[in-house]
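Reagents: none. Just compute today. LacI family transcriptional regulator.
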Amino acid sequence: MATIKDVAEVAEVTVTTVSRVLNNRGYISEKTRKKVYDAIKQLNYSPNEMARSLLRKKSNLIGLIIPTVAHSFFAELTNYIEYYAYKLGYKILLCNSYQDSVKEKEYIMMLKSNQVDGIIMASHTLEIDEYLNLNLPIVAMDRAFSKSIPFITSDNYSGGVLATNLLIDNGCKKLAHISGSLDLETPANNRYKAFLDVVTKRNVENIILETQLGILENYEKIVHKLFEEHPDIDGIFASSDMIGISVIKVAKELGKEIPKDLKIVGYDDIKFSSLVSPSLTTIKQPIEQMGELVIQLLIDQMEEKEVSLENVLPITLVERETTI
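Predicted 3D structure written out:
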């Protein structure tokens, strides 16, 4: 296997010059640059990326820890994060934690050993100290860790208010809210708080169910149980579109006519929301903008620029067939 020394000998330059060409550092004449590239091609030389990163003290790798890429919201978010990272010269190391604290900790150790330049944290199992001790640029998704770690979220409270009021304004008399896990104090829990505030203010009968992030079949079991215990539910605010889609499936199995017998509002506006039948009314998070912003915040930290701690992006109501 060819080495950088071999490239230098064939190109008749120093090893330092080859290194400067590879790392695009300093002035190198076009003639010299061509000689180095011709030698690399002739020898089929492949630079040792780990060695280069040690030399530059920069790996151009970003760690991304999410609960599971099987969940459509995180799949779409990951897609945009990878896209904007690549545009700026970075590659992503993707870690699925499955909300397992042991696995998440192992991934953190792996990312540290691979000398990533920063970490995007979208899994919520470990305590803040585990991340603060890394001494790396970090951006959190939907979790306010500390005054030293910026986070990105959408305007969850406003989204919850819009969703709940829409159901009541459309004639629903008994509402259910199927929330995510309420164990951790996360910005996403403001969807639940908004629901409570609205139904209390408007004196509407309501039920609240809490779920853990899981596969579609688990959501369906929860929805089946809800309808068994409360068959007169006529409006549901689901804290994610994946849950909302599960509600549509179960309701159709039970012979409920949507939106006549049951109206549904989701949250996220993943691509599937417009493809299911009936199409799902939802609160749209700007997923692409979130993916772009998280990369920019991370790189700004790497470059020691000042960044905003709280980054709350606006939401919009997208009305479709489950409420119209």
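The chain has three domains: 4-47, 61-154+288-313, 156-286.
Action item: order primers for follow-up constructs.
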